[in-house]
Amino acid sequence: MSSKQGGKAKPLKQGKVEKKEYDEIDKVNIQKKKDEEKALKELRAKAAQKGSFGGSGLKKSGKK
Fold first, then answer.
1. In whole angstroms, what is the distance from residue 31 CA to residue 37 CA?
2. What distance in Å separates the CA atoms of residue 36 and residue 44, rounded to the nearest whole number?
3. CA dist 23 to 18, 27, 36, Å?
4. C-alpha dist (Å) from residue 35 to 1, 12, 27, 47, 63
5. Phi then psi for 4, rounded to 5 degrees?
6. DSSP string, 11-27
7. What angle do CA 9, 12, 2 make, to 5 degrees?
8. How far is residue 39's CA from residue 20's CA, in Å, rounded to a whole number?
C-alpha cells in the first residue's frame, strides 16, 4: 500500500464568521474599552519616553 500522503495534513477550511448584531449598550461598552486601551497605550509611550523614575539611579546613603 503506497499512498502519496506525507507530511502535515492541511487543516479544513472554516466557515465565514457572521457579524454580530450589537445593541446600544454593547456599542457603548465596546467604545469605552477602545478608549481605555488607547489611553493606556499613550501612557505607556509617555512612560517609556521619560526613562527611569527619579533620574538619579541608585541612591546611596551618606553613611560610611
1. 10
2. 12
3. 16, 6, 20
4. 61, 37, 12, 18, 49
5. -95, 15
6. PPPPPPPPPPP--HHHH
7. 30
8. 26
On whether the CB atoms of residues 30 and 22 are closer than 8 A, the answer is yes
Predicted confidence band at 33 (pLDDT cuts at 50, 70, 90)? very high
Query: What's the grid cell of residue 7?
Result: 507530511
| Per-residue cell: 17 | 464568521
Q: Note the pLDDT tens digit of each residue in 9-18.
A: 787 888 887 8
